[in-house]
Amino acid sequence: MHQGDLSSYETYRNLPPLAGIATMAEAAKPGLSVEQVVTRLKRYHYSFKRLHEILTARLTAEPVYEVKTAFSLHSYLCSEHVASMRDRVAEMREPPLGLDVVPDTSLEIFYDEILSSPTTAKLIVGVYEKALPALQAAMKKHIAGTNPLADAPSVRVCRFALMEVEDMIAFGRKAMESLVDDSARQKMSGWLKLLNDAMAAAGGLDGTAERSKTHIVRQYSARPYVYDRVPRRDERFIDPFNRGVNCESFLYNPSFPNRAKTLMMYYKRIREIDVPEMMASIIAETRGKPWSYYRDMSRQLWDEARHAMMGEVGFASQGIDWRKIPITITWSHNLNTQLSAVERHAVLFFIEQGLMPRTGKRYEWEVGVASGDALSGLFQDYDWADEVLHAAIGRQWYVKEFANPKEAIKYGDDCWSKVVSDWRELIDKGLTKHRNWWPEVYAEACKKWGITPDSAAMAFDETYEASRADLKEISASG
In the chain, N or C terminus with fewer CB closer than 10 Å? Predict the structure, then answer.
């Protein structure tokens, strides 16, 4: 049959044809079959899923703060795109969908090697220079090769994914400029060749290229990866076991001025970096859940990293150098090393329930608004809103494992009570002196504000005690 000249196809009053998604000529071209699209989507799905696994698993022990927070965001973004790819495949094929099947053993080795990479430099090169650009190229190729009308839903899924993949790559490019020098890159040349060989043996990320016959020998993944649940921080985090300031006691003291309390709330926010460190351990060590579990938990993990960065911004807005303040690591360290994944989730939910009454997040928002610090009021407004979502996530994925909410809360209380944190022992071991850093920080802030420090607030000196009462305080997720 003769094909007409579609470039001259006339539309009514020159309106864009086909809802604006393509020209008539573009929509009339051959494209990928449903089977071809499904096969490719499964490989994108597998890639996003493995990247989510890698970024989550490596977050806790990653010491560099900016990398830790970026992993928090990027693991969440990957979880969302896993869900989108799953949904699209389900629209095109009846169960079983085969989404949990490894699509190619060489691709599996590729991601296993990145997961097991021993240094931050190798990890970020593997993720941001090798894995994400390969995924980006595959989805761009998909869009270019498929029929934009027939496969419009897949094109949409890929386009949205590409927007965020490009953002992730942009971060990675800058991170590599800062953290990967020529010497480090030279040392990893053999390993990078292994990654290239594995991708070539897989026929590229989408599996459509000619497959290399190179025999792939595992290097770092020759031994199964073991998750490292011990949280680590970079050198800017001074005296990380310091518990010399009980910020909850300060915040709930009615005699202290609200403006001083905003500083303590900024401290509470930046201290929340230990929540992603702990939540990553729950996600990494919990298997067999529906994907919506991992997506929801990853969203909460990202929110907690956002809260920490709100604290960072808060201090910066006041001209206060947070690096002079001991940002404690004891909460994530103790939970990760003393409790199981289920017990950690129980503690997380138990603490979240304590944040919902008027004396919790609402109170912090009221303090922020009353302080006159507009940024504090704004951040606490969103912090409160996020906590409403987190409580709902807890009810969805934790409470349903119990006969009723009362039992779920009691179990969380019991698990929280099992955590041992003896601050005197930390002093004896020389890990900290539990120095009270508050007066100097408050005095510096008052100087910048041009006010005289409140004498009672200036003299505040209350440390955490290693007792059941203190263990039950809202000491991290708040």
Answer: N
- Which residues does 178 contact at the CB level (< 8 Å), separation at least 6? none
Give the DSSP letter of residue 96. Answer: P
Contact by Cβ (8 Å): 21, 148: yes
The SS3 of residue 392 is helix
Q: Strand, helix or coil at 23?
A: coil
Q: Beta-carbon neighbour count of residue 329 at 10 Å?
A: 22
Cβ neighbours of residue 400 closer than 8 Å, sequence gap 6 or more: none
d(CA 295, CA 396): 12
The helix/strand/coil state of 406 is: helix
Which residue ranges make up each domain of the chain?
Answer: 1-28, 31-222, 247-471
Mapping DSSP to helix (H, G, I), strand (E, B) and coil, where does residue 329 land? coil
For residue 366, the 8-state DSSP code is H
CATH topology of domain 31-222: Ferritin (1.20.1260)
Q: Is 239 left (phi over 0), alpha (psi -120 to 50) or beta?
A: left
Query: Alpha helices, DSSP H only, in 221-290?
Result: 247-251, 258-271, 274-285
At 2 the pLDDT is: 45
Average predicted confidence (pLDDT) for the chain: 93
CA distance 405 to 416: 16
Per-residue pLDDT tens digits for 404-461: 999 999 999 999 999 987 777 888 888 898 899 999 999 999 999 999 999 999 999 8
- Residue 230: the pLDDT is 97
CA 109 vs CA 195, 247, 422: distances in Å? 8, 47, 43
Q: Look at residue 9 in the predicted model and tell me its pLDDT.
A: 82
> What span, in angstroms and rounded, lies between the C-alpha atoms of 364 and 265?
8
Name the DSSP letter for residue 129.
Answer: I
Other beta carbons less than 10 A from residue 29's beta carbon: 14
Q: Please give the average per-residue pLDDT across 333-347, as a whole number.
A: 97
CA–CA dist 441, 464 (Å, integer): 19
Which tokens sit at 287? Answer: 């298997």
391 CB-near residues (< 8 Å, 6+ apart): 352, 353, 355, 356
- Sign for the CA dihedral angle at 374, 376, 382, 384 comes to negative
Q: Determine if the peptide bond prior to 153 is cis (ω within 30°).
A: no
